[in-house]
Write a structure and sequence with these properties.
Blueprint lengths: L1 E5 L6 H13 L6 H4 L1 E5 L5 H6 L5 E2 L18 H6 L4 E4 L2 H5 L5 H13 L3 E6 L3 H5 L2 H10 L11 E5 L13 H14 L4 E4 L7 H5 L6 E4 L6 H11 L1
Parallel strand pairs: 1-2, 1-8, 2-3, 4-5, 5-6, 6-7, 7-8
Bound molecules: 2-phosphoglycolic acid.
The site of 2-phosphoglycolic acid has 13 residues, from strand 8.
Length: about 240
């Protein structure tokens, strides 16, 4: 199973260090990391601190521009990430699509650029509440459109299905909806499929046992290491 925590716009370098120290000090069984992985996505200012402290934990960036470097105020590029050894990128999160107005075309350009640079891409997709209210075929049509320009056969791809209405709302998708949506996604790609959106220690066990769920992407509940550990323990 893949356990991934998205810090969003939270954590300083110092609290990121403490987080990783606590996580690495946790008594995972010796075989844990042969079967499972833990990835955290700190903000850009904490990436170097996170890499220093990573231990058994994988570290990814939350967003990046498809360029080595250059006159690109307000972003980070490949050179910065490579200089500290980051090789995983979270891409297409609904907050990037909605707040920062990233278009599907731009997201696809980032995908191409960073997969060519050898990055693993955790690619987020998900529908709004109004699309969900229109039923399963409207959801499928929307999710399908979020694969435009994305190489679904890439071995660097990992998909995170995150219904927008479930993110930070305290209301995760139902197991039936997760199962149906992930079965649809499985028909599109053989990539690992994560679920995200209000995952917590109470619902994680059932979500992780759902067919075609290969892991979870967690926001609020994993902002402290104990929350992430509780979710991992839900599987054990
Ligand atoms: P949440 O966020 O767990 O707080 O719902 C998930 C995410 O946005 O990745």
């Amino acid at each position: 199973m893949r356990f991934m925590a998205n810090f969003k716009c939270n954590h300083t370098p110092s609290t990121t260090r403490s987080y990783l120290q606590a996580l690495n000090a946790h008594a995972f069984t010796p075989s844990f990391f042969t079967k499972h992985s833990i990835t955290i996505f700190p903000p850009a200012t904490s990436l170097e601190a996170a890499m220093d402290m990573s231990g058994n934990i994988r570290i990814g960036a939350q967003n990046a521009y498809p360029s080595q470097a250059g006159a690109l105020t307000g972003t980070i590029g490949l050179q910065m990430l490579e200089s500290i050894g980051v090789q995983i990128l979270l891409l297409g999160h609904s907050e990037c699509r909605e707040i920062f107005k990233q278009s599907q075309q731009h997201i696809a350009t980032i995908f191409d650029f960073y997969t060519q640079a050898g990055f693993e891409i955790v690619y987020c997709i998900g529908e709004s509440a109004s699309i969900r209210a229109q039923g399963a075929s409207a959801v499928q049509e929307h999710l399908y459109a979020q694969f435009v320009g994305i190489n679904t056969t890439s071995s660097n791809l990992c998909v995170a299905y995150e219904p927008i209405w479930a993110i930070g709302s305290g209301e995760s998708a139902s197991i039936e909806d997760i199962a149906a949506t992930h079965a649809f996604l499985r028909s599109i790609t053989a990539a690992p499929l994560l679920y995200g959106g209000s995952v917590n220690a109470t619902n994680a066990g059932a979500i992780l046992q759902t067919d075609n769920v290969d892991g979870v992407l967690i926001g609020s509940f994993a902002l402290q290491p104990q929350g992430l550990v509780e979710i991992i323990n839900a599987l054990m």
